[in-house]
Amino acid sequence: MGAKANTFNTPGVEEHAHFLKGVEDALKIRQSVIDCFERASLPCITEEERKKILHFVVVGGSSAGVEFAAELHDFVTADLAKLYPSVKDDVSVTLLEAGDHILNMFDTRITKFAEEKFSRDGIKVKTGSQGVKVTAKEISTKERATGQVSSTPYGMCLWATGIGARPEIIEFMKKIGQADRRVLATDEWLRVEGCDGVFALGDFATINQRRIMEDISHIISKADTSKSGTLSLKEFHGVIDDVMERYPQLELHLKSKQMSSIHDLLKNSSGKYSGTEVDIETFKSVLSQADSQMKNLPATAQVAAQQGATLQTVSTI
């Protein structure tokens, strides 16, 4: 079923902007882009009007908006420039993002790379700018720092500021006690919380990944078989593989620190770690760091594909 585009009730968005949800949206976007080039090629169009018609605005610096801006740039430079050589130099693409950076849900290195790549390609990235109104020919934006509102003409506007639940999902959430949530909540096995036998995946659901510290007593009890207050390497290795599999946030934390194993985390901690024994309090402290950096998975096609593969595996067990 999926989610729907979230307009935040911004005036004019539903009537004048394009979205990125279904095949019909893709067809409308492609036709709109070509229509812009056709109109811009008319001999009666002035240079100023041509620049306005060939200005493509993308609202939303998440993965969807960034990917679309990049694909649009490639489509224009690789294909349309050959078909419409007389107007190719008048094309401009602007990406609007209300936050400080685009792709702020990803690692900062990815954000930096994308912003630098867009700068080289001539794609204008305007951060701290929120779309507040859309008309047939202009988009009004509000600067977060100053509160100033200005209008910018465009030929086509794409709205990619996130997703919201469909009415059917909202009604279902009310019935299972999730009325106060924005999307369906599942456990890490994609089972809908509060509704036995129902699974959910994709962009209308989110995984409530269990925190390591919720189970820390059980983990320590299982590991410290000698009840000594420290873990031998044998005891440590007896549980760490299960912990890594059960709590994926630990592996993500290692990657964010550019470390290959939890031993590296222990070595860099301020606690006691001799290389042959692990102090339990040090072990707890290191695990709690992974919990502190937990983030919900982004609603991307890649994540949905991984969830689908997981659900297929679970259903065959």
Q: Could you walk me through the main structural features you see in this protein, from its secondary elements to its overall organization?
A:
The protein has helices at 13-16, 23-40, 47-53, 63-83, 108-121, 167-175, 216-223, 233-246, 248-256, 262-268, 280-292, 301-316; strands spanning 4-5, 55-59, 92-97, 124-127, 129-134, 138-143, 149-153, 156-159, 163-164, 184-186, 205-207, 230-232, 277-279. The chain is an alpha/beta fold and 317 residues long. α2 runs antiparallel to α3 (47-53), α8 crosses α9 (248-256) and α9 (248-256) packs across α11 (280-292). It starts with a strand and ends with a helix. The mean pLDDT is 89.
Features:
alpha/beta; four-stranded parallel sheet; 44% helix; 317 residues
Short description:
The chain is of the alpha/beta class and 317 residues long.
Secondary structure blueprint with pairings:
Blueprint: E1 4-5, H1 13-16, H2 23-40, H3 47-53, E2 55-59, H4 63-83, E3 92-97, H5 108-121, E4 124-127, E5 129-134, E6 138-143, E7 149-153, E8 156-159, E9 163-164, H6 167-175, E10 184-186, E11 205-207, H7 216-223, E12 230-232, H8 233-246, H9 248-256, H10 262-268, E13 277-279, H11 280-292, H12 301-316
Parallel strand pairs: 2-3, 2-8, 3-4, 10-11
Antiparallel strand pairs: 1-9, 5-6, 6-7, 12-13
Helix pairs in contact: 2-3, 8-9, 9-11
Strand content: 15-25%
End-to-end Cα distance, whole Å, is 25 Å
Mean pLDDT: 89
Helical stretch count? 12
Largest sheet: 4 strands, parallel
Shape label: elongated
Structural Rg: 25 Å
Q: Quickly give the structural class.
A: alpha/beta
What string, H for helix and E for strand, traces the elements in order? EHHHEHEHEEEEEEHEEHEHHHEHH
Instruction: Give unreliable regions as ranges.
Output: none
The count of strands amounts to 13
Binned, the helix content reads 40-55%
Spatial strand sequence of the major β-sheet: 4-3-2-8
